[in-house]
Amino acid sequence: MIIEFLSLILRFFLIVLIQLLVINNIELSTYVNPYIYILFILTLPVSMKPWKVVILSFLTGMTMDTFSSTPGLHMAATGFMGYLRNFYLQFACSKDDIESRMEPSISRKGLVWFVLYMSIMTLIHHTVLFYLEIYSFREFFRTFFRILSSSLFTVIILSLGQLLFYRSPKTR
Amino acid sequence: MRNLIFFFYKYYTFILFFLLEFFSFFVLYQYNNYQKASFLNFTGGVASGFYESVNSTTNYFGLRDINDSLLAENARLRAQMLNAYYQSGFTQTSINDTVYKQQYNYISANVVNNSVTKRNNYITIDKGAMHGIEPDMGVISSNGVVGIVTSVSKHFSTIRSALNGNTKISCMVKKNNAFGSLEWNGDDPKFSSLKYVNKHVPITTEDEVVTSNYSTLFPQGIPVGKIYSHTLDAGDNFHVIKIELYTDFSTLKNVYVIKNILKTEQQILEGDLKGDN
After folding, report:
1. A6-10, A85-89, B86-90, B128-132 — which is least confidently predicted?
2. Most B CBs within 10 Å: which of A13, A27, A69, as the mutation test of the B interface?
3. Cα–Cα distance between B140 and B153 in angstroms, integer?
4. Closest partner residue to B28 among A76, A86, A142, by Cβ?
5. Which domain, by its residues, includes A63?
6. Which residue of A has its CA nearest to B44?
């Protein structure tokens, strides 16, 4: 239990640092703003209680807000995504997955399942985030295009990261 | 009563979510409306300290470019020095004290955090309230306009850069003093747009755009950029102008914060005027 908790904290800091020090400095174009820090919320164990996920989502968003001068922005988007994650996983996971305290990953559920899960969650997060950021529907289609291109990059980076760094599944 | 408790018990996740979401929107709304950030003053110290330590390591990589830009600025300032001018008379220097009263002070600062590709970009600098910086001060670089100070902590300040949907800077076309408002459309960090220039005003590409004398944040005539392209939409009263910015926001390292000494005096006077109406 304690080891699980510590590894969670370690992962949180690692992901936030990667987002702040590497991804935020890519600055390719205004249409490419990947936010990979949502990986922390997405890979929480399936069996985790929904209220814990919601609180962790808001905390993650708050951390990002602290470092990007945007009070409330990431908090609202990540919290929204964290809340909807519970519903998605309820119907996308089998009972076995929940009982074995599975952490969603390519190695456990396969590429298609994982990419679909990532894409839907990323789209939800980015949609809330980008529309809240400009705070109006003035530039509706430009923002929409930004959301699509940024989400694409987020999903690509996350999937590549999973393929490169995650160990093959431990057989139980 | 029991039903109520049961209701709370059943939907506690949703209620928790709702409360936290409400809180985030509250903070967000507060910030967007008044541009004063109690949240940032609270968290700003931690974030800025972090970026400061990151910056102190990455600073070494850009030393050559910084040196070059400083040399260029030195050369320009040297050209403006009194001994670089041919003195045609002596009257000017003798009455200098009474005619020229200093209105603007400049505080130099280093950029410790910056972004250019978000819709609303912010810059953090390493000078704060301790060095005399207050919210709503103009910020320029050696090339041109940078942005406006939003919030200040003891040692740091955050700046709403010109690449931000909420930043509007009063500008004018230098050759004919036509007024307009500089607003970023969120597309390309090298370009911005000048809005509300009346269509009867003749403009051409390559015209220089500078800050206007209507603004209390910037002295008149600080360079902003030059006109890159301009079109006229049918049925619109204003030019659609695209401006190439002089400031390269992606390599910004040194900036100057402008302190307008006469600003309160002007604002109090204008405030009196409004009371009359």
Report:
1. B86-90
2. A69
3. 20
4. A76
5. 36-165
6. A66
